[in-house]
Amino acid sequence: MEASRSQNGHNPLQIAVVAALSLILLYGVFALYLAGQAVIAVIVLAITIGFAIIFGSNRFYAQRFIFPGIAAIILFIAFPVAYTVYIGFTNYSSFNLLTFERVTEVHLSKKVIDEESQRPFSLVQDGDSYQIFIKEGEGGYLSEPTDFAAPAKLSAAAVSEVPANPLKMGEVVKLRGGLAQVEVVLPDETALRNSGLRSFASVQQEYTQTEDGTLVSNLDGSTLTPDQSQGFYITETGEAVAPGWRVNIGLDNFRRIANSKGIRAPMVSIFVWTVVFATLSVGLTFAVGLALAMVLQWPHLRGKTAYRILLILPYAVPAFISILVFRGLFNQNFGEINMILEGLFGIRPNWFTDGGLARLMLVIVNTWLGYPYMMLLAMGFLQSVPADHHKAAALEGAPAWTVFRKITLPQIIPPFLPLLIASFAFNFNNIVLVLLLTRGLPDIPGTIIPAGETDILGSFTFRMAFMDSGQQFGLAGAITFLIFLVVAALAYANFVAMRRQASKRAAQ
């Protein structure tokens, strides 16, 4: 009876822990909502409700083992992918970061200073209050006292002498926040505001908003009209005025990619190079790793342990350190590689300025970084090949290459297949290597966006989003979505092709 009650009832400690964690998560939801992250707040709220239901009731005991993984996928994979895709359908950029309301506030907060009305000023302390002295001729105007605690409109009276012991500039700087809140009215009704660290002047609001949302200039009567299709205020001559706000623009980013030669041409070139780079990287690392693994499997080889340690070292060293070392080795002027080539052959290749050589350098470095992983896998897979098959082939007089092609390779390809596909997908987006080694350079001439001959699609998108002066997040999001579709299609096509090839070899 007690065991049944323990199994079907609710443990008070369990309920208390679940309730406490749920309250913490709910507080996080509230904080996210106050921070303006409503979408993330809704996702976390859904996860919180699921957590409370699944872990608060023994009825869903089996679901407890998969819930953390599902929650992590939703929060860290599904949401970022969906948000990136959504960004691709907007005009989000460094010029369109704000909301429409905030952009309107920015324009309405613009002030125009009348240069002819500017006058120097000084501050005079009067107990816990301060008086503003505005110089005019030999004398000037002295305002009534204020403590700068709140916005104020201060009347000023004419005085014939400059007050003694004005505050030093350092003390004035400390009070600049209060100075920005006050307005000094001279005897002739001229209103002056703080226009700098050393001056007061007549300051006028540049724009006034009408009922229909149009901004009218108080200087010349010109207008700024909000255009929700572009996310900018537009002048009477049709020019967009920054800053802008983020709006949905549908397929405009994708049309821009398709129709603009300055974007389309480098994208096609970069796409082709990305496929070639990923294919060469997978092929060379697989070939080198498998060849070294077969050498290490040779029974008559002495010192296998030492060779294994030396060959695995590139895998043990952090990749970014190896990349930076190679960047120094390939230095065109002082690198050891060019010194050796010049000494042996009298040549000094321009590794970083010649597009073809820069691409070759990327492949060489990536092969060095990737072969130890393939070698370790191959060493394990080769041991799974039955020795009897090799002995039978040797008795029949089959050459070594035939044994490898007909017996060894067909048996190690099936377990290698998913790892080769994963390696292809990784190298398709291997932006760390590109950014650290070449930074995508040399640039492709004639483009309107940052694009280099060694850029792959991932680094190309990264540079556009975070290294370009315009930071075109929307365009980068559209390209990222296309990359996602391309990588998925290529990975699936590779998987199908390699599986069919493996099946044919196994049948033979």
TrEMBL record:
InterPro entries: MalF_N, MalF_P2, MalF_P2_sf, MetI-like, MetI-like_sf
Gene3D superfamilies named among the record's database cross-references: D-maltodextrin-binding protein, MBP, MalF N-terminal region-like, MetI-like
Entry membrane topology: Multi-pass membrane protein
Gene Ontology MF term list: ABC-type maltose transporter activity
Residues of the ABC transmembrane type-1 domain: 271-494
GO cellular component: maltose transport complex
PROSITE patterns: ABC_TM1
Keywords for the protein's UniProt record, in alphabetical order: Cell inner membrane, Cell membrane, Membrane, Sugar transport, Transmembrane, Transmembrane helix, Transport
Residue spans crossing the bilayer: 12-33, 39-58, 65-89, 270-296, 308-330, 360-382, 416-437, 473-495
Xref: CDD domains: TM_PBP2 (cd06261)
GO biological process, one term: maltodextrin transmembrane transport
Any one Pfam family match given in the protein's UniProt record, by short name: MalF_P2
Transport listed as a keyword: yes
Keyword Repeat: no
Annotated compartments: Cell inner membrane; Cell membrane
Family recorded in the similarity comment: Belongs to the binding-protein-dependent transport system permease family. MalFG subfamily.
Quaternary assembly: The complex is composed of two ATP-binding proteins (MalK), two transmembrane proteins (MalG and MalF) and a solute-binding protein (MalE).
Function comment: Part of the ABC transporter complex MalEFGK involved in maltose/maltodextrin import. Probably responsible for the translocation of the substrate across the membrane.
Protein name stated in the entry: Maltose/maltodextrin transport system permease protein
Organism: Halocynthiibacter halioticoli
Lineage: Bacteria, Pseudomonadati, Pseudomonadota, Alphaproteobacteria, Rhodobacterales
